[in-house]
Design a protein that fits this description.
Length: 221
Amino acid sequence: MKNQENLTSMQHQKKTIEIKSKTKEEAVKEALKELGLEEKDIEVNVIQNPSKGFLGLIGAKEGIYEITVIKKEEIEIAKEFVESMLLKSKINAKVNATQERNLIKISIEGKEAACLIGRRGETLDAVQFLTGLALNKINKDSHMRVIVDIENYRSKREQSLIRYARKVAREVAKTRRTKKLDYMNPYERRIIHSALQNDKYVITCSEGTDPYRRVVIEYKR
């Protein structure tokens, strides 16, 4: 039935397959099965109508149909979701989106967007979480991760946490007393652990259950 396939996987290019079939309905059914999509995700272009031929047998020809995928890429879905959230919140900001393998990075630029950072980035984390949910709703088999940042907050926060971790580590090394840090999300805890993993005088571990999980810095005996 299918005699030629031309799939393009580069972002923003449309995927198309060419199918030979007796009817348009059969072509669509085969395309949906092949692509794993729903009918709303494709467009059908008739290249050649089917011909029954003499007595429905001699000279009969199958129709040729070009099926084009119009389903949006996940990076577009993530970007549009954040843009919609900003619009509903009446926040004037620019949204940029890039993709590195299975990681989508959403960067929001604009002073008005700073209100979405929240205390220690809690509101920003919520925006990131909701964006990830939006992707999973569209594609349940998605393995994409999403990072949402505002005015380079995460980079600044990372540097701040590293300085804080080293400061507390010096204190623990000097007093030899264990120090328990404030509750942090997994991302921030990883930054602390990474910053001190090669420290000569202290070791780190985590205790508690999210969202009440924290890093503990102990003197290395």
